[in-house]
Amino acid sequence: MTEKNGMRLEVCDNGRYLLKEGNPFFWLADTAWLIFEKLDEAEAELYLRNRKEKGFNVIQATLIHKWPERNKDGDTPLIQNDFMQIDETGAFWKRVETIVDIAASMDIYMALLPAWGSIVKKGYLNSENADHYLEFLIRHFGNKKNVIWLIGGDVKGEEAIDLFIHIGMRLKNECRDQLIGFHPFGRTSSSFWFHEMPWLDFNMFQSGHRRYDQVNLKAWDDNEGTPYYGEDNYKYVAHDLSLLPIKPTLDGEPSYEQIPQGLHDEKEPKWQSWDIRRYAYWSTFAGAFGHTYGSNAVMQFYTQTDKEGAYGITRSWQEEKDNIGSFCMGHLRKLMESVDFINGRAKEDLLVSANKEKYEHISVFAGDDFIFCYDYLGIPFTLDLSSYHGNMKFYYMDPLSGGYGYEGSVTGETKVRFSPPEKLEGHNDWVLVLLLEKQEIKTGRCS
């Protein structure tokens, strides 16, 4: 299995987006934390092909997720569970490299966590053995064109801040063509601890799995002392993009499809495809450089033969790999790539009236020749188009199907009221698409 050339990623000059070999790159990731633990090569290829066909181009995965770690065949990455004794030529790491190379052959990036955050918190990976592990990772993965590094793993930076900084600096110094981020604890962002660090190429926040009213569940992952935005993940984007130096940011873990709201109580309703779309469009239209999707069954690769599964899971990953929300994500990527999105901005100031809260929030993203508005409830709203000169064609895009309905054009009107149609089935969310009629809509370089 050979790697594809031309996969180098870098941060755009404007600091807010990524480029792939000089061309705009929209990050659309799936969460596959346990892929190396739970799947063999054939299963991984099936999964990756499934994601490729849906438009995903990044897979977030953990190299060592539990302690002690072993794959489905009983192979282990470490000898005697010791980071100073890595089984470099063993079957575990051979399979990992094979899966990473399969992804490369499909033009898919692997965003790899060296170890899940709990392994650091419990002291298994520490300042005394980290360099030995890092040297191994750099030798085996440091030159792979489709590898992105994620430090952390559902953990606060303060849990081991010196170690995380050391890991970041070491990877940045020796893996110069690979980007580095940090996957943080729920309802926090990497920017809370590492924004000014030169090794951090982009920010990642975890908006998490809680509803507006689930501020304090008396659970292990309550997060006092940090901002609580509930389901408003776009507010993390606004926070991160307000910082200097400007760095790209995205939601690396929003609510997973078919996971209980709040995680801990299996009797709670489960997040559905329309919730997944809302998180994706809200954050992307706020200026995120992409989005990460997750499915309860897929992120843990649950099978009916497993002795136990987490978060009330009952269906296998094979059954849930084709959940509705996974199909919807590709429609967002296609929409963004149809325009010069890397020069777009969040533009809520185009709304004539003050934006409303919670589910009535209208997200607006615009460039010189386009305007996108995501309307979760399908409620009427008014835009000020005085800064756009010429005919503007407008469409309603169904974010469920990806279909467009042409509605006409507006010319020379300052304030225009838009009333999305009413769906007779399913959730009534819509994307209003406005395009300047005589402009060539294409993706371009950043400025």
UniProtKB/TrEMBL annotation:
SUPFAM superfamilies in the cross-refs: (Trans)glycosidases
Keyword Hydrolase: yes
GO MF terms held by the record: hydrolase activity
Domain of life: Bacteria
Annotated keywords: Hydrolase
Entry annotated with the keyword Thylakoid: no
Residues in coiled coil: none
Protein name: Glycoside hydrolase family 140 protein
Gene source species: Blautia liquoris
Ranges where the Putative collagen-binding domain occurs: 349-434
Domain named Apiosidase-like catalytic: residues: 13-342
